[in-house]
Specification:
The protein is built from 15 helices and 14 strands. By secondary structure, it is of the alpha/beta class. It has 2 domains: about 210 residues, 3-Layer(aba) Sandwich (Rossmann fold), CATH 3.40.50.2000; about 170 residues, 3-Layer(aba) Sandwich (Rossmann fold), CATH 3.40.50.2000. Helix 4 links the parallel strand 5 and strand 6. Helix 11 packs across helix 14. The mean pLDDT is about 90.
């Protein structure tokens, strides 16, 4: 089977959850004997083609449809959002002639996949938990372009793009169970496919939590209001024995500044570290998991939480927000995680205390849980879904 994965961006130096999922699925499909090619914009990367681990990655320059468009705004849209036009992508897809186009983006890129996919099976994945995004956050994503002229809408109208996304796709793949439930009422072909993990990467990690008076907390997530790292900054003030390391790219620089200012105001800056983006599976990332005592993901909303699987594979007790697919993932493995409402500071403290008290048992339960989310098995489920369409 010839499979084209289409995603908004793929940068190995500035990595996110969607990129990690697509890359691991693509590698598993390649190992299973399928032809796989990735198509993306050049956001945070470069325009052109490169071959990595036997997979061709073809990138095209995105065109953001607002006026005026500054370099600073384009850089911000490269990191998050943007809804670009992607000249050249349609022709490249047609020339490669895939059996399946699997789109991992929405709006214009998804519309484009539908337009070039006549006679081709078209599938779309919902990675962002759109069913759970609070209205205030949805508005904040549109804020950078609020006062600009949206000339792209004129092009959309001229092209006759209907934007019935994702319903017009032949199949819908949902990372979050709540989104899967939502679309099963609207579409005959919906697959709930959780994220996966390569447990072998984290086999040598572990924690000695029970023997330590200090507490090293790790959070792996992009620096973004959705991820709610502010809850950890506030927790540092209440826990003078605690340190926090934040691993992940900065998608909202203004939020990073808010975190730094609040840490300075509370006098906890010396116990807060911004590590930056680390490539999944890298030695540096594995070392971050290895040095931590507890993993905390305090997201305001989350369709799944792939980093929780990594933490479990690394043998770390997990503390996580009881929201969306993340809450359901933790509920499916209750011995491996302590959950809390994302805006409840007292509940966060109680969950951290539980992780300290029951760390050894949670660590063992987490390793067992992680073993159930193997990339090879998930890839085969996805390929079987393609075949049924």
């Amino acid at each position: 089977m010839r499979i084209a994965h289409v995603l908004r961006r793929l940068s190995f130096d500035d990595w996110g959850g969607t990129e990690q999922v697509v890359w691991n699925l693509a590698k598993a499909q390649l190992r299973a004997g399928h032809e796989v090619r990735l198509f993306a914009t050049s956001a945070l990367a470069f325009e052109g083609t490169e071959r990595v681990d036997g997979i061709d990655i073809v990138r095209f320059r995105p065109v953001y449809p607002w006026w005026p468009m500054t370099r600073r705004l384009a850089d911000a849209l490269d990191r998050k959002g943007g809804n670009p036009f992607v000249p050249g992508l349609a022709r490249a897809l047609r020339e490669w002639r895939p059996d399946v186009i699997h789109c991992h983006a929405m709006a214009r890129m998804a519309e484009l996949c539908l337009r070039v996919g006549k006679g081709v099976k078209c599938v779309v994945s919902l990675h962002g938990g759109g069913a759970n995004v609070p209205e205030t956050e949805a508005k904040s994503l549109k804020a950078p372009t609020r006062w600009l002229f949206p000339w792209g809408k004129l092009v959309d109208y001229a092209m006759g793009w209907t934007r019935r996304i994702p319903e017009d796709f032949g199949g819908i793949v949902c990372v979050g169970e709540d989104e899967a439930e939502k679309y099963r009422a609207r579409h005959p072909h919906v697959l709930y496919l959780p994220n996966g993990v390569d447990t072998k990467v984290f086999e040598s990690t572990g924690t000695a939590l029970g023997r330590k008076s200090s507490l090293s907390v790790l959070c792996v997530a992009r620096i973004d209001r959705q991820k709610n790292q502010m809850a950890l900054v506030e927790a540092l003030f209440r826990h003078p024995e605690m340190t926090v390391r934040l691993v992940g790219p900065v998608t909202q620089p203004d939020y990073k500044r808010e975190l730094e200012l609040r840490a300075a105001e509370l006098g906890v800056s010396s116990r807060l570290s911004f590590v930056g983006a680390l490539k999944p599976g890298s030695r540096e990332l594995v070392e971050e998991y290895s040095r931590a005592d507890v993993f905390v993901l305090p997201s305001r909303h989350e369709p799944f939480g792939i980093v929780v699987l990594e933490a479990w594979a690394a043998g770390l007790p997990v503390v996580a927000s009881d929201v969306g697919g993340l809450g359901r993932l933790c509920a499916a493995h209750p011995g491996a995680a302590a959950v809390f409402p994302p805006l409840d500071a007292a509940a966060l403290d109680a969950a951290i205390e539980k992780a300290r008290r029951e760390g050894e048992a949670m660590s063992a339960a987490g390793r067992i849980a992680a073993a159930k989310y193997d990339w090879e098995a998930l890839s085969q489920i996805l390929v079987d879904f393609y075949a049924k369409l």
